[in-house]
């Protein structure tokens, strides 16, 4: 593919951990490695320390969005900075993420003069915010040259609220970075180790469901490693829980490599499940709530086990069965090691480049 000048727009603060932010950062670095010129426009809480390819558009404000709190940026100053970035970049294509969010992507869609590609990450067909705003969003999004959804769940949300028919291209992971991770012996439990990664104070991430399940198991020698920011919840008496806080990607990979099982007890609002893919790449057996997006990543149970969403008792049973059956864990890990290659950036970036190439030729 010929080199392009590509502008990427992230709606959320790029220096705050999150799935969309990680996707934009990794995509930018992958495209740069492939010879493209790339600039990323994003809100930022930091004044310095950002990658050279990032243009900070200003400080974001917290806003409840899609069952979480996103740090978004909008208003006259954001609009002026977005227009200036577009003019200076003279891009062949602009790729905005979450264009329906009240942030920089929405501004860029209306201001860009080159073809605009949009990736939709959110999966919430019952979103009252999108339903209320659909009359405004649809005419604006008609300017899009191409639409991408990261999963079937995200695609259904786009079709219902924003119209169009997006192509499904999943989130990407640098698989080899996780496959090479080494376990940390001092983090292991006496008998077994379980890992959880997510914002610990956000109810939909399901940490309290996992803690309740482990209390019901009443199993000694089991340790839970918790990675993520936020105020830790109360831990039931008798549980061995180690809160590691926010960590970098290399440490996260070592946590996953240390665990016997990675548990994703999320209760809703998930459009993909990038941490499941990271666990699969690290060679960790995955046990996840049976959300549609998670089932899709796990190939309907062939590459990981599932349990009824929000059911702590069912989670306790499923986790106990996995811990007691190393042969089953090994079978799931082998299937996951094959499955995860379809999410590697070498594959995902090529598919995104095909979209760019199509619209940039118009």
Please write out the topology.
Blueprint: E1 5-9, H1 19-33, E2 37-42, E3 54-56, E4 61-65, E5 68-72, H2 76-89, E6 93-97, H3 104-111, E7 116-120, H4 128-141, E8 146-149, H5 152-161, E9 167-168, H6 175-179, E10 192-197, H7 207-217, E11 222-227, E12 240-245, H8 249-258, E13 261-264, H9 274-281, E14 285-289, H10 292-297, E15 305-307, H11 312-323, H12 326-339, H13 345-360
Parallel strand pairs: 1-2, 1-6, 2-3, 6-7, 7-8, 8-9, 10-11, 10-13, 11-12, 13-14, 14-15
Antiparallel strand pairs: 4-5
Helix pairs in contact: 2-3, 7-11
Descriptive overview:
- The protein has 362 residues and is of the alpha/beta class.
- The protein starts with a strand and ends with a helix.
- The chain has a seven-stranded parallel sheet with strand order 3-2-1-6-7-8-9, sandwiched between helices. Strands 12-11-10-13-14-15 form a six-stranded parallel sheet, sandwiched between helices. The chain has a two-stranded antiparallel ribbon with strand order 4-5.
- It contains 13 helices and 15 strands.
């Amino acid at each position: 593919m010929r080199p392009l000048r590509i502008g990427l727009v992230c709606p959320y603060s790029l220096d705050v951990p999150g799935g969309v932010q990680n996707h934009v950062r990794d995509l930018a670095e992958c495209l740069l490695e492939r010879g493209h010129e790339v600039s990323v426009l994003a809100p930022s809480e930091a004044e310095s320390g950002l990658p050279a390819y990032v243009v900070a558009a200003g400080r974001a404000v917290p806003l409840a969005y899609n069952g979480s709190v996103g740090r978004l940026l909008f208003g006259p100053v954001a609009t002026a900075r977005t227009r200036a970035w577009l003019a200076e970049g003279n891009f062949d294509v602009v790729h905005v993420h979450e264009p329906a969010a009240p942030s920089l992507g929405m501004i860029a869609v209306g201001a860009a003069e080159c073809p605009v590609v949009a990736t939709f990450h959110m999966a919430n067909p019952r979103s009252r915010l999108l339903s209320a705003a659909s009359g405004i969003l649809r005419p604006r999004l008609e300017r899009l040259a191409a639409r991408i959804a990261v999963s079937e769940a995200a695609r259904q949300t786009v079709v219902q609220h924003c119209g169009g028919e997006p192509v499904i291209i999943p989130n990407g992971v640098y698989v080899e970075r996780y496959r090479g991770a080494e376990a940390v012996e001092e983090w292991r439990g006496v008998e077994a180790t379980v890992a959880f990664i997510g914002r610990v104070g956000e109810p939909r991430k399901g940490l309290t469901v996992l803690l309740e399940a482990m209390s019901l198991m009443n199993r000694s020698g089991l340790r839970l490693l918790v990675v993520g920011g936020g105020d830790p919840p109360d831990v039931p008496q008798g549980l061995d829980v180690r809160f590691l806080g926010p960590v970098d990607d290399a440490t996260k990979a070592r946590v996953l490599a240390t665990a016997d099982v990675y548990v994703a007890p999320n209760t809703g609002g998930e459009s993909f499940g990038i941490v499941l893919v990271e666990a699969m790449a690290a060679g960790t057996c995955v046990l996840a709530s049976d959300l549609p997006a998670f089932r899709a990543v796990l190939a309907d149970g062939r590459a990981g086990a599932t349990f009824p969403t929000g059911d702590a008792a069912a989670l306790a049973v499923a986790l106990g069965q996995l811990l007691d059956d190393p042969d089953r864990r090994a079978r799931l890990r082998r299937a996951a090691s094959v499955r995860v290659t379809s999410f590697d950036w070498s594959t995902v970036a090529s598919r995104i480049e095909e979209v760019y190439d199509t619209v940039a030729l118009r």
